[in-house]
Amino acid sequence: MCELYSKWDTLALREKHIGPSCKVFFAADPIKIVRAQRQYMFDENGDQYLDCINNVAHVGHCHPEVVKAALKQMEVLNTNSRFLHDNIVEYAKRLSATLPEKLSVCYFTNSGSEANDLALRLARQFRGHQDVITLDHAYHGHLSSLIEISPYKFRKGKDVKKEFVHVAPSPDTYRGKYREDHADAASAYADEVEKIIEEAHKSGRKIAAFIAESMQSCGGQIIPPAGYFQKVAEYVHRAGGVFIADEVQVGFGRVGKHFWSFQMHGEDFAPDIVTMGKPMGNGHPMACVVTTKEIAEAFSSSGMEYFNTYGGNPVSCAIGLAVLDIIENEDLQGNAARVGNYLTELLNIQKAKHALIGDIRGIGLFIGIDLVKDHEERTPATAEAQHVIYKMKEKQVLLSADGPHRNVLKIKPPMCFTEEDAKFMVDQLDGILTALEEAMGAKTESVISETTPCRTKMPNEVNLELLSDNTTDSKENLSRKRNGVCTDKHSLLSKRLKT
User: How far is it, in rounded angstroms, from Cα 449 to Cα 472?
Assistant: First the structure.
């Protein structure tokens, strides 16, 4: 596969023709990816990178069964989903079988943003209410209706919170309002939602929905405490609203123990609406809203017809069916549990070794590493997190950082991620943290005891340039096969940018 342009010509054209708000990974020294397979990505030089962040390629980049299903259906038909076709009903039947019985009606869309926008429409039509309760630091999509309910976005811009939007504290037991030492953090956080509902009612407002990711991703890989969703659902239902579970990032077996992340909260909990996207089509634009017959009928009673030209088209559904088959046939849900547990064990060993690691949290192949300068104050190590992801890139491992302070390293790889991949990733992280802490003058022998809180503090100001590119060899012991990729001699970069 040959390149059309050199890397730097590609970058120049992007700067000219692509909106400046459309950012690239590793903006200071971007990677040009020309090919990918399973959990690996390859640049224009044929260098291999371990992909630890691409949760869109759910069953693995360019999975042959997905490619085969797409090609086979494309050769026959792809058309408007308003024509009768077996693929859409077969997929809806298969998808519904993975969900609680009451969730049986599907609306297909092309993206998670479209799905969440439609979920809001369904919720508001249900009882004629308008107000939405969202979580602090939440992100639910890029449409205007979703930016309004995404504090992760609207608090970064000039927009002020709309009067119909109510922001509840994120149920973060590490650095939130109620922490791990609270007697009942789940109830305390849920009571905050109840207070919001009471205040809204006093102002004459009515709640249409509570919306939350089953596990907050952009919010910093947050796992809600057990019992929180049940209590929130009780308060929201009592107010005449519905509970929307956003599974766009975390569904389809990523947590390992369950197919859907909301199922971690027990069989006695079921949302009223579930939205999904990203992993559904393994990179093909495919998403869905699943709800109850009662809510669907209320939506239909408005008299407004809903259709989505390509949502649920024959090719999308053929790809979606292939993804479901692969998850089952390759036991990817089981793999997420096994590899996720192994990776968490390895990271907890690193937590005991490195003063920079404040918290390891996650389930299955959804894990966050919260980096801190001070264990007692839990001061976010934002600059250090950015330094780490660039150094990991030099070691051919792709990570990114998120959370309100952008200090949480997030791990959401393709589901075919292996124990060998986990060990390789953690070994690289260990080396980078060791070098960074030595450069910072940290006392790495001060470790976190399981019984004694760590009092180690990191320097407030850090000169990250102490670690120059000369301290590590980004090419060492890594595969350098060309993998059939054509290269342009003008695309090679001789000077590495400092992080």
Answer: 30
